[in-house]
């Protein structure tokens, strides 16, 4: 009998067949080479027949990219989902990143041929959007902005901060530890629930270099509480010739009526903050970045500090942030302001297609923003057993599991992907329900 292994093609012959060439273009040579070698090894060991080599390879390589990151459909109703990379970028931001992925004039003035200030156009866009700011600086993230501001203004000296604003952000990181780590001494004033202007005044000494106010973005203290507003703190800081730094966290440039407790950069600056710090990838809806707005002299001081070089952000971030700011329309804002009636209609169609129940379901800002804010909306309730197959399926769909049910919330799903979610849920349910895709055609409004 003929040894079937003799029918195994040579690796070099496979390497130039058309489907492999296509995969090499998409994924690069190295990952394809590993897949080819692995499939050939399986054929040699008798695990698959030589005739199955090409189809096995095709299915191994299908739908992959050169990165192992997998896109996820966010059906949780949580908009700025930290575990899913926070803000999804707008099409304009993505286009700007693609454009910036080659050589760009990020630090060059094309007219003179001379070196120019890095990311100048992104900084200009920020100043145009937030005219209350004399200047702007963009760094790697909000935490980097905070550590740069406090170190540059108060390295080796003291900063006064209310006890109620000692915030722990995700994964056990405490902003106070971050600030202290570069040799700034934090002086804690007030109590957990109440801090008064006099507490700050009493704490100011000749070692004080700045006052700091941090927005407690991921929690709320209710009941017998009081805090000192930016305007009052600014008055006190000015009286002592100290800068006031305000970390507003979430990145609203102007106030949003939907989020009354969320501070906005324009308001904080108008109230007298010297520097305002925020993240680019929370409510601003852009890429990961730390944004510092405020007095030109202070921004210059920060920009010249050695730490600024260690926390500078890359050209892709600058491009995406600039596009996000200039266009102003972001998926985050669309999901935040999603119309509840429309969400209900979409959920109803999905429930009909899948045999689920439509239930009221509040969306959340997430990502340590809009603490306690509920965004009224709807979800489709299905058996909780489908959460795992949905998560591990293709496309991966993340749902909320609550009270023993799987809740599919379409707030953060582009309408054009509703059908994908229905198909994924249908196959997770084990094909028990029938396709009714015709209902959705021509109706999906991306
Ligand atoms: C999120 C947050 C930070 C950290 O910002 P990153 O961009 O996540 O580094 C700092 N301060 C406050 C108040 C925040 O909400």
Description:
The longest helix has 16 residues, at 29-44. Helix content is 37%, strand content 15%. The chain has a seven-stranded mixed β-sheet, with helices on both faces. 39% of the residues are buried. Mean pLDDT is 93; it is low at 432-446. It is built from 18 helices and 14 strands. It has 446 residues and is α/β, with parallel strands linked by helices. α2 crosses α3. Pyridoxal-5'-phosphate (PLP) binds next to α7 and β8. The site of pyridoxal-5'-phosphate (PLP) has 16 residues, from α7 and β8.
Task: Based on the model shown, name its key terms.
single chain; 446 residues; alpha/beta; binds pyridoxal-5'-phosphate
Summarize the structure.
The protein contains 18 helices and 14 strands. The protein has helices at residues 11-15, 18-27, 29-44, 53-61, 91-100, 120-129, 142-154, 175-180, 197-203, 230-239, 265-270, 296-304, 306-310, 315-327, 331-336, 340-354, 387-392, 418-428; strands spanning 72-75, 108-109, 114-115, 135-139, 158-162, 185-189, 208-214, 244-249, 275-279, 290-294, 357-360, 378-383, 396-402, 405-409.
């Amino acid at each position: 009998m003929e040894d079937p292994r003799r029918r195994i093609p040579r690796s070099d012959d496979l390497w130039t067949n058309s489907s492999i060439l296509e995969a090499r273009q998409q994924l690069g040579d190295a990952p394809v080479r590993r897949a080819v070698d692995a499939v050939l090894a399986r054929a040699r060991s008798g695990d698959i027949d030589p005739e199955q080599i090409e189809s096995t390879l095709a299915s191994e390589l299908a739908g992959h990219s050169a990165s192992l990151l997998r896109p996820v459909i966010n059906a949780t109703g949580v908009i700025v989902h930290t575990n899913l990379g926070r803000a999804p970028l707008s099409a304009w931001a993505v286009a700007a990143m693609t454009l910036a992925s080659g050589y760009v004039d990020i630090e060059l003035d094309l007219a003179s041929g001379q070196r120019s200030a890095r990311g100048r156009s992104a900084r200009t866009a920020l100043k145009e959007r937030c005219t209350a700011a004399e200047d702007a600086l963009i760094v790697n993230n909000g935490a980097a902005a905070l550590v740069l501001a406090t170190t540059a203004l108060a390295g080796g000296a003291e900063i006064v901060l209310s006890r109620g604003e000692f915030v722990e952000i995700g994964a056990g990181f405490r902003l106070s530890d971050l600030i202290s780590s570069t040799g700034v001494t934090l002086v804690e004033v007030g109590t957990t629930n109440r801090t008064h202007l006099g507490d700050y005044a009493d704490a100011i000494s000749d070692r004080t270099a700045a006052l700091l106010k941090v927005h407690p973005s991921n929690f709320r203290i209710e009941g017998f509480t009081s805090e000192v507003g930016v305007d009052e703190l600014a008055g006190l800081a000015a009286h002592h010739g100290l800068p006031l730094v305000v970390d507003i966290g979430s990145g609203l440039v102007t106030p949003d009526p939907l989020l009354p407790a969320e501070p906005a950069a324009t308001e904080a600056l108008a109230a007298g903050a010297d520097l305002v710090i925020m993240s680019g990838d929370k409510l601003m809806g852009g890429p990961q970045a730390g944004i510092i707005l405020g007095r030109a002299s202070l921004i210059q001081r920060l920009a010249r500090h050695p730490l600024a070089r260690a926390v500078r952000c890359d050209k892709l971030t600058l491009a995406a942030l600039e596009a996000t700011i200039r266009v102003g329309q972001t998926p985050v804002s669309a999901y935040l302001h999603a119309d509840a009636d429309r969400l209900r209609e979409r959920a109803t169609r999905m429930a009909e297609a899948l045999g689920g129940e439509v239930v009221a379901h509040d969306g959340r800002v997430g990502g340590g923003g809009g603490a306690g804010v509920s965004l009224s909306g709807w979800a489709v309730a299905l058996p909780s057993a489908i959460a795992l197959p949905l998560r591990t399926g293709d496309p991966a769909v993340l749902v909320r599991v609550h009270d023993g049910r799987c809740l599919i919330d379409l707030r953060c799903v582009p309408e054009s992907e509703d059908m994908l979610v229905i198909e994924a849920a249908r196959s997770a349910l084990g094909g028990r329900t029938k396709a009714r895709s015709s209902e959705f055609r021509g109706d999906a409004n991306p």
